[in-house]
């Protein structure tokens, strides 16, 4: 792992200690834990009755109801749950281009989110895309000792989802950190990540130059994943066309997220590391 990525994890860890996760109304889900969910479970919090079905556990039959009505009824209890965060990181090469701080900004946000999750009594899993989605080593420990956060994949997150999808926890919260700069269909990714979850936040991280590139004249552009090169004269008209295309692409992602019930926000990598970004802008973190 690069030293600057390691340092960004440490800095994010410190920043996250002032925040906690704010859960959506649907609520998270796990096995047994410290919060009440909306599904039926096995806690001591009585919720309702339903009619007995063959195979039901007789220990949960309310015999008082049977004595009064001559009908067997099963007690239902509200599920007690442990909230969970699945943090998904785009591990493609475009996330850590030479001479940019995008990779460090991703590490900073990941560290902050992980610590805020812990302060909210959440379990967590951190996933990095590559050939597929793999758990980051040491992800249950402090972000400063995570291992393997490297941006080396030539596959897009969409391809990684097809190759080996992450094992996301049902009704857990999902956060996806990416620049979203790959060709494909956003709906394929958003639908996969939102299905079965309590909520999905997509955080697009871009550098200032990606948002507002200068007119450089003659340049050679090299695709970080494919290695393909393109010689181009970048003048003000080309910059205008680029900005317009980026805006359309962002609106495509935003529209897809709205349609699927997810939340999309775009942050500037430099502002993240300069401390100019209030983390509450992510729609998930609140001070406290």
TrEMBL record:
Task: Tell me the protein's name.
Answer: DUF58 domain-containing protein
Signal peptide annotation: none
Under the heading InterPro entries, the entry gives: DUF58
Q: Which residues form the DUF58 domain?
A: 48-119, 159-248
Check the record and name the PANTHER family matching this protein: BLL2464 PROTEIN, DUF58 DOMAIN-CONTAINING PROTEIN
């Amino acid at each position: 792992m690069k030293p600057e990525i390691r340092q960004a994890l440490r800095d994010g860890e410190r920043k996250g200690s002032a925040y906690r996760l704010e859960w959506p109304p649907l609520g998270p889900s796990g096995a047994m834990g410290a919060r009440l969910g909306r599904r039926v479970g096995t806690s001591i919090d009585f919720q309702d009755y339903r009619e007995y079905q063959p195979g039901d556990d007789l220990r949960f039959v309310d015999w008082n109801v049977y004595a009064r009505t001559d009908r067997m009824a099963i007690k239902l209890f509200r599920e007690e749950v442990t909230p969970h965060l699945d943090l998904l990181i785009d591990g493609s090469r475009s996330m850590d281009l030479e001479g940019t701080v995008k990779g460090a900004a991703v590490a900073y946000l990941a560290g902050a989110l992980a610590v805020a999750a812990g302060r909210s009594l959440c379990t967590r899993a951190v996933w990095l895309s590559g050939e597929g989605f793999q758990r980051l080593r040491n992800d249950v420990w402090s972000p400063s000792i995570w291992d393997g956060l490297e941006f080396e994949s030539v596959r897009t997150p969409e391809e990684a989802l097809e190759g080996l999808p992450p094992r996301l926890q049902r009704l857990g919260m999902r956060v996806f950190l990416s620049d979203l700069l790959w060709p494909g269909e956003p709906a394929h990714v958003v639908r996969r990540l939102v299905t079965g979850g309590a909520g999905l936040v997509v955080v697009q991280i871009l550098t200032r130059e990606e948002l507002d590139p200068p007119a450089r004249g003659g340049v050679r552009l090299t695709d970080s994943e494919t290695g393909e090169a393109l010689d181009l004269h970048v003048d003000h008209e080309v910059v205008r066309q680029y900005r317009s295309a980026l805006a359309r692409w962002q609106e495509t992602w935003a529209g897809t997220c709205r349609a699927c019930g997810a939340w999309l926000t775009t942050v500037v990598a430099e502002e993240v590391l300069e401390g100019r970004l209030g983390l509450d802008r992510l729609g998930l973190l609140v001070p406290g």
